[in-house]
Amino acid sequence: MPTPNDPETPVIEFVDVEKRFGDNIVLKDLNFSVRRGERVTLIGPSGSGKTTILRLVMTLEELTGGYIFVDGEPLTHREKDGKRVAVSPKEQKRLRTRIGMVFQQFNLFPNMTVLENIIEAPVHVLGQSKAEATAKAHSLLEQVGLPDKADQHPMSLSGGQQQRVAIARALAMDPEILLLDEVTSALDPEVVGDVLNILRKVADTTNVTMLIVTHEMSFARDVSHKVMMFDGGRVVEEGAPEKIFSAPTHERTRQFLSAVLRDA
C-alpha cells in the first residue's frame, strides 16, 4: 500500500478498483497511479468508464471494491484486520478539499452571483475570510477573462463564460488535484478554443496534478504527460502523447483515434 508523506508516493492511486451499477461492471481490477504534478488524460469511447473514474476520485460515486489513495491516504476505504472498511466522513471530507473538479455541464448555483459561486467553498469549507476569498475570486476572474462578470448570475452568461467561471471556482480552492470532465463537450465550437487555452495556461503555470477526460485530442496531446486508452472499463494502452497519437500499438486505440480524428 502507498505511504503517506513519501515524496515518491503517487498523488492518486487506484488499487484493484471495481465499480458496478447493478449487474453492469463499469470498472474491473483497475490499477494505475498519477504522480505529483503529472497531467494524465483518459481517452476512449463513451461508456468505457472514464467519467466514472473522475466521479470516484471526487467521491460522487461509491466504490464497489478496491481502494483509491490520495497522497498515500485512503480516500473512501482502508484495509483493517484483513477487512475492507470505510473511512470516516471527516477523513473523506478532509481529502476532498484537495480535489477540484470542472464538470461537463458547469454545475454552477443559479441563485448565486458569479462571485458568490466562486467564494462559497473557500469560505464555508476552507474557512477563509470573505475578504480573502473575494480578493482571490476577482484575481481568478481576471485570469479567465471575466473581470466584469462578478455580480452577474450564471444564466445571464454564455456557455463558454459559465465554464470559465466553473474553472475559476475550482481553482479558488487551491486544489492539489484538478479533475476535468469533458469540459468543452457542452460548448459551441467557436468558444472551445478559449476554454482550452485557459486550461493550457493553468497547466503551464502551476504544478497542479490533472486527471483529464476529453475528446479534444489536440488538447490531450499538448498538455498531457501520459495518455491512457480505455475500453470496456480497462486500460488497453498507455504512454506518452507522442507514442499514443503517432504510433499506437493496440488495434483498439488505432480504431478509436481514426474515428475521432476523422470526425474532427
UniProtKB/TrEMBL annotation:
SMART domains: AAA. Pfam families: ABC_tran. One of its GO terms (molecular function) is ATP binding. SUPFAM superfamilies: P-loop containing nucleoside triphosphate hydrolases. GO terms for cellular component: plasma membrane. Residues 12-257 form the ABC transporter domain. It comes from the Bacteria. The keyword Nucleotide-binding applies. Keywords: Amino-acid transport, ATP-binding, Cell membrane, Membrane, Nucleotide-binding, Transport. It is a peripheral membrane protein. It is found in: Cell membrane. NCBIfam families: ectoine_ehuA. Belongs to the ABC transporter superfamily. This is Ectoine/hydroxyectoine ABC transporter ATP-binding protein EhuA. It comes from Nesterenkonia jeotgali.
